[in-house]
Specification:
Strand 6 and strand 7 form a beta hairpin. The chain is 25% helix and 23% strand. The strands form two sheets. A five-stranded mixed beta sheet has the order 4-2-3-5-8. Strands 1-7-6 form a three-stranded antiparallel beta sheet. The protein has helices spanning 10-17, 37-46, 80-87, 97-104, 149-156; strands at 23-26, 55-62, 67-73, 92-94, 122-125, 134-137, 143-147, 159-161. The N and C termini lie far apart (43 Å). With 165 residues, it is α/β, with parallel strands linked by helices.
């Protein structure tokens, strides 16, 4: 049986337009433990990659009602106190899942820091600074892109800060 040709996502098109090198990674979406830390590890394993290079995109709201994006290792959790400090907020809380699509244009499990409906302040966990490449969602479940963290940070106008635990 021939493998079907994978279609480019909007994230890939944006990276192409900006001439940012990346490698597309596709996986068959199986019923892994979605919504848990293990799901990110499941995706990394499906791609045959080290989970330490896999990053998940989380969206939160600050006490000021501003929206923030955080990219952290798939095996970690967001430290809300560190995240609030990194963005200058008194506190932050995770965005409710039902708010994700209207605000970002992405569904839960397919959220990417690239190509959201509006640009939001973005923080990449400080652990990425020592890596030559990381893998983030390509904007839909079943698709990922591997790229240099510095290029990703520059593209989204982000910063680096230790925000995971």
């Amino acid at each position: 049986m021939a493998k079907k040709k994978e279609e480019k996502t909007n994230v890939m098109r944006i990276l192409d337009q900006r001439k940012i090198p990346y490698t597309a990674r596709f996986y068959e979406d199986s019923q892994g433990p979605e919504g848990t830390r293990e799901y990110g590890v499941h995706v990394a394993e499906a791609l045959g990659q080290d989970p330490a290079r896999g990053f998940k995109t989380l969206v939160a709201r600050g006490a000021s009602k501003a929206i923030y994006v955080f990219d952290i290792p798939v095996e970690d959790t967001l430290d809300l106190k560190k995240a609030a400090k990194a963005v200058g907020e008194k506190s932050i809380a995770m965005l409710h899942q039902k708010e994700l699509l209207p605000l970002t244009g992405y569904v839960h499990g397919g959220c990417s820091p690239v190509g959201m409906k509006k640009p939001f302040p973005t923080v990449l966990d400080g652990s990425v600074e020592g890596l030559d490449a990381i893998v983030v969602s390509a904007g839909k479940i079943g698709a990922q892109v591997e790229l240099a963290p510095a290029a990703l940070c520059a593209l989204v106008g982000g910063t680096f800060a230790p925000v995971s635990k």
